[in-house]
Amino acid sequence: SGGFEIERGGLRAFPRDFPVYPGSLVAGSWEPRSTPPFEGITVVWESTGTVNEVADYYNGGLNGAGWSVTSSDVASSPASMTFEKGQIMAHFWIGSERESTVIQVTVASK
């Protein structure tokens, strides 16, 4: 399962097993428009965790939920990671902005 089927915190297109970093707040979300039609959503959260703490959380949480890491560059700024599960991919950018850590995730069909 894990398709684009639920609504959680106003986000109607997130997989059921997708973790959200504790204490993070949604700063924005959008569903891209493209040709051919793009099935997915991008969400931006703000967090007080460090870039490394956030990256470690998602790496452990997604691997534990059966997602596989397909790319990871947590040494850059912003850090980036891509995970896949079945026909769904999730791409992360995690970076520092002002006094918070910004987590941008695009979840889409492959």
Describe the structure.
This protein has 110 residues and is mainly β. The protein is built from one helix and eight strands. It has one helix at residues 51-64; strands at 6-8, 11-14, 25-30, 40-47, 68-73, 79-85, 88-97, 100-109. A six-stranded antiparallel β-sheet has the order 3-4-8-7-6-5, covered by helices on one side. Strands 1-2 form a two-stranded antiparallel sheet.
Short description:
The protein is mainly beta and 110 residues long. The chain is 13% helix and 49% strand.
Per-chain topology:
Layout: E1 6-8, E2 11-14, E3 25-30, E4 40-47, H1 51-64, E5 68-73, E6 79-85, E7 88-97, E8 100-109
Antiparallel strand pairs: 1-2, 3-4, 4-8, 5-6, 6-7, 7-8
Core attributes:
single chain, 110 residues, mainly beta, two-stranded antiparallel ribbon, 49% strand, globular, disordered N terminus
Query: What is the radius of gyration computed over CA atoms, rounded to a whole number of angstroms?
Result: 13 Å
Q: Uncertain regions: pLDDT < 50 for 5+ in a row?
A: 1-11
The count of helical stretches stands at: 1
Strand adjacency order, main sheet = 3-4-8-7-6-5
| SS-based class | mainly beta
Q: Main β-sheet, in a few words?
A: 6 strands, antiparallel
Extended strand count? 8
Measure the end-to-end span. 15 Å
